[in-house]
Design goal:
single chain; 98 residues; alpha+beta; five-stranded mixed beta sheet
């Protein structure tokens, strides 16, 4: 990916939940490094991720303690962080529409 919007969301989250910091930094570096072309390519790299509608994937962070919902635009090589939260917070959102 050429751009990930918005890394500041990740930073704010790991400041509140410090045990997520290393996992989120690793996810960010990985996403910036790879030039994925499809959701299935991402799923091959992250087998525990869940593919949703509208170019979205849910990533399990830190052994599924946290959830990261990202919308990908492969044409523009952008990734949009739509949600980062705890499992409990995740239960209160619709990952397909957030």
């Amino acid at each position: 990916m050429e751009r990930i919007f918005a890394k500041s969301s990740l930073r704010k989250f790991w400041e509140k939940y410090p045990d997520s910091e290393q996992n989120l930094k690793t996810w960010y570096k990985t996403a910036m490094h790879y030039d994925w072309k499809t959701l299935n390519e991402i799923k091959q790299f992250y087998p525990n991720a869940s593919i949703l509608k509208n170019g979205r994937i849910v990533f399990n962070i830190k052994g599924n303690s946290y959830r990261l919902v990202v919308k990908f635009n492969f044409e523009k090589k952008w990734a949009y962080i739509r949600f980062i939260g705890t499992r409990k917070q995740d239960n209160s959102i619709n990952a397909n529409t957030i």
